[in-house]
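Data availability (excerpt). The following record was deposited with the supplementary files.
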Amino acid sequence: MASREHGTLVATTVSTVEITGNHENLVVVNHGTDAIYFTVDGSTPTVAGDDTFVCLGGGYANAEARGSGPYSVKLISAGTPAFSVLGES
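Predicted structure:
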């Protein structure tokens, strides 16, 4: 567990990242071109699904961190983009 994590998604497979510490925001950075869909409450995201955040290719997305960590960030994409997840205070 860390306050930042980097990786590459496998197409249509959920990846889980645990972020420790107390943070105001969780930031997902998309280093690829395919959109990344994610949740920060431990629920399972789906590609283009309801109740998910989206991070477009080459961009980043913020999600408010609720309570204290660790936070379970789950990510999925139709492609294989590289990503970073950061805790921001």
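Summary of structural features: Residues 4-88 form a domain with the Jelly Rolls fold (CATH 2.60.120).
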